[in-house]
Amino acid sequence: MRKLWASIPLLCSFVALPGMAQDDAQTRAELEAVNEAIASIESWLDRANASHSDAQETLREAELAVSELQGEIAANRQRIQLSREEQEWLESQRQTIDADRQAQAEVLANILRAAYQTGEHNRLRLLLSGEDTSKAARMLRYASDLSRYQLERITEFQNTLEQLAEVQQQLDANLAELQQQEADLTQRSAELAAARDERATALAALDADINSRNQELEQLQFDQAELQALLDEIARAMQGVRSFADVPAITGSRGRLSRPVDGTITAQFGSEYGGGSLRRQGIIIRAAEGSPVQAIHPGQVVFADWLRGAGLLVIVDHGNGYMTLYGGNEALSKRAGDWVDTGDVLATSGLGGENGSAGLYFEIRRNGTALNPAEWLAGF
Length: 380
Fold this sequence. Notes:
This protein is of the alpha+beta class. Helices cover about 55% and strands about 15% of the residues.
């Protein structure tokens, strides 16, 4: 399991919010309070995970493995893009320097021809010719200036050759690194495909385990209760921990919030499921796997981990008791403690749709009570 406390060093980011002027003592106290709250949530999650069946534990590990590989692949692709941009820049530098080299070589050839035609024997003949001495002095000065110019051009040409060799060496090294990064990407992609297969196998095994014991409704009820227990624990742990004074109230954007993911709503708030015995606390948005899941409002991530029944889940606290939940993701992009703004990518969508189809499960809560997203999202 990816430990929540692994993100604690990142929590210092919350003191950098615009307008938050706090002295060191207050900052340390608030940071310690946040760390303790997240440790409390982590302890609750450990206890919850301890009650997993073997099938559930296998699924949890498989989904976390997929998420980790997705993160590695995204980072690898970013490194490859940067390497390619550097490669293009180095190539443009090489072409510029090579053009300078060609121009300097032509100038240098002309200088050498001129030097040959006005060699030392010509200077001596000029001195002994008995011609006007002032004219001879001028000619010798011109010859001296030409010699200095020749030396400067030769030195400039040598420097250009050295620059060209250095850039070519950087190009070769960068190309080798780029090839290694692309090989790593190919390997990670193969590992991801295998991890997805393992996840599918684990999910099928869990479904078979539930069906064999004829306890699907009981499991759904337990999953719903566990999510509620997590939200209660978060509210308890985070109560009074920090200020949201610099975060605009989410109520001011009611009815104008963007959907967390592009897609079609396939299950409405309050719709029945579990054979009609349960009512949905959120909505399901159908979306292709890997679609970016975005925060609908500024806030702080208070949970980013796997939860039974919700899969890879992100919970964002927006202050004043409001939280948004994004479940069934394939990969997580944020960690507990991260501050996010509207539109920041929290995760990539996975199998959060109906019956394990591609999509996102989304909720809005106020003090633990589920709210109808239709009243909050624009264009519903």
